[in-house]
């Protein structure tokens, strides 16, 4: 099976190394020629997003297409530039679009499954909803099997609480009642591989762990594993937050992952942040970050 990725980054790399799926050929777009050259040295047929000739060639041979490029300036760049080409290729291919659970907006701590209508509260999430709709419409009028994956907060090697602790940037901001879900990148890869193996057209999946938890608990657990002092509590009202962090704390919800478990048969390797952090610590993640 041949894979083509728009935006060959962190999640795509996890999918490529996933034992659940073996690829005959892997190709994808990156932002610059230097990264493309590095990936080609690893056996991945990489090119820049603007290399239309190579993208066209790879799309024509792809059995699976993953879109992980975020919308920008009100539009999805991949859809705007390449949707027509993908449709014209006429392949019976799987296409997965990586979205975000942010499309649900604030649910006052309530549970959310895929039947809950999107209620985006910021421009980024609104653009995600539009991108989802565009890709689903493309699937409806083509031979593609399109699936949407709404991802919770991603963590994994090199992107986790140990890294922020080692850098001294970890903050335990406490907002009473605030919870969120997260998902290990390897579990995202397992979900994508399961969907490719059992494709269903126009399906939407929440991709999250089993346990919504207060964000400060993740930092505390990582600090205890690393044997270092737990950073002090910072009341939300006194926290200095970036616009991105402000939007995070403005939304409070619990994400149900029932569909990936029951329909795709995915058994998460890291069902809660505890298993994920324990595995990362055992692999030397904290020592590598210091």
TrEMBL record:
What single Pfam family name could you report for this chain, choosing any that match? Epimerase
InterPro entries, alphabetically? Epimerase_deHydtase, NAD(P)-bd_dom_sf
Against Gene3D superfamilies, the record matches this protein to: NAD(P)-binding Rossmann-like Domain
- Coiled-coil segments on the chain, per record: none
Q: Which residues form the NAD-dependent epimerase/dehydratase domain?
A: 9-207
> Domain of life of the organism in this record?
Bacteria
Which CDD domains does the entry link to? SDR_a4
Q: Which UniProt keywords apply?
A: NAD
Q: What is this protein called?
A: SDR family oxidoreductase
Instruction: Name its species.
Output: Microvirga brassicacearum
